[in-house]
Amino acid sequence: MERFLLIKLTSLHILTQWANKLSCYKIVSLCVSCLDFKAQKWYNNGIQEYAITYDIKGEYFMATTRKRGNTYQIRVSCGYDTSGNQVVQTMSWKPADGMTQKQIMNELKRQEILFQEKCMKGQVTANVKFQDFAEQWFEEYAKLNLRNTSYERMKQLTVRVYPAIGHLRLDKVTSRHIQQFINDLALNGKSLKNGKPLSRKTAVHHLSFISDVFSYALKMEMLIDNPCRRVTVPKGEKKEKDIYTLEEVEKLFQLLENAPLKYRVFVTLAIYSGFRRGEMLGLEWKDIDWDNCVISVRRTSNYTASKGIYTDTTKTKKSQRSLKFPQNVMDLLREYKAEQDEERITLGTKWIDYDRLFVKWNGEPMNNNTPYFWLREFCEENNFRFCDIHSLRHFYASALINKGVDAAAVSGALGHSTITTTTSIYCHVFNQAQARASEAIASVLDFKKPDDGKGQSKAV
Fold it and tell me: Whole-prediction pTM value?
């Protein structure tokens, strides 16, 4: 069967209708790969155009319209899925009040063409639910591109996201839907573990997950907009980071004198290095340059319920770094190495050699939560204020900033991917340091200084 389609020279899409000239013509947009066609050129009002004769192998992207009351339903066939079932996209259009019949017909034709264009580009999602597509995102993107810890965290977020919007069609999820969900999460959300109110950061993580799914749909040309970009996370109380003071750290070092050597080394090294917990647990003895007192971060040790304890790459490329340590820290590490070597000899074949600094009784990598629980119990036993393991990293960063170390050097020591990350996280500390710098220059330029007792002012 032959039919005719008219298009402009520069386009593969339908740009005008020629129903009056070609009675057998239908408004269609065609996937050229599905057709055998030949073109005949002619001119119409000075515009070079083609009449394309084609043999239909399959009627893809052909629009049909039917009226339902005051609304028109436009249907477009988009071929077949992998199961052999026909894929049909639909949309509804309702004429505005006061339109004439001719205006309705002209606008209806325009809507057909626009809808066909969207179908050709894959920008219509039919009956794909958010939950179904999110699971596709996990398999096609997240599992291949995200770190295991990030993947597991994203999976945990679905517990709240799916009941809220998982049942909605992907193209029907609006900014309003997401905003209502985020507002409820931020204002009324409770932790599933302890029932405490959720932090603002938790709401941000949920919004980020939803946005990542929509961004993937955009990348796959299934949608033309990400509704998350218009969503705002409600402002919450900004909690100051719980960090030990310098006096508390001094007291902590005193208390650690009586602690098991393994944990004394862990806490001491965390304070002197600012290493992340996973970086600390991933350290191996070969990462230590004893001659130059340098320790290098090359890997991390992480845990997920599905994989257990496993070795992974660092969080970012810049997280792979080397830091120099004072002699007292290196001496403590030597003492700990000697103790671990004795344990290895004592256990004999029961010892499993991973070359890790921080291990279980038999040499296997230490569980990620072990340092946290030990420090909490240690603080309780000594009636000492408890701050979690990550707070030691914050103390390290704050100490460097307060000593006047520049932002680039602090960022490098912390292993941040950009300086912006450092200045954002420790904004208040940098501001305090800058305030002290202002006070310092004011003191230097204070020419009206007290008399030195000889009737003259002190020289600057």
Answer: 0.66
Out of 64, 89, 119, a domain closes at 119
CA angle 179, 123, 93 (to 5 degrees): 80
Tokens of 155: 């999976």
Range of the structural domain that residue 21 is part of? 2-119
When divided into structural domains, the chain yields a total of 3
Q: For residue range 280-318, what is the model confidence (pLDDT) as tens digits?
A: 999 999 999 999 999 999 999 999 888 899 999 998 889
Sequence letter at residue 46: G
| 74 and 181 co-located in one domain | no
- How far the first Cα of the chain sits from its last, in Å, is 99
For the stretch 116-151, pLDDT in tens is 877 776 656 556 899 999 999 999 999 999 988 899
Domain boundary among 206, 230, 254: 230
**Do 252 and 385 fall into the same domain?**
yes
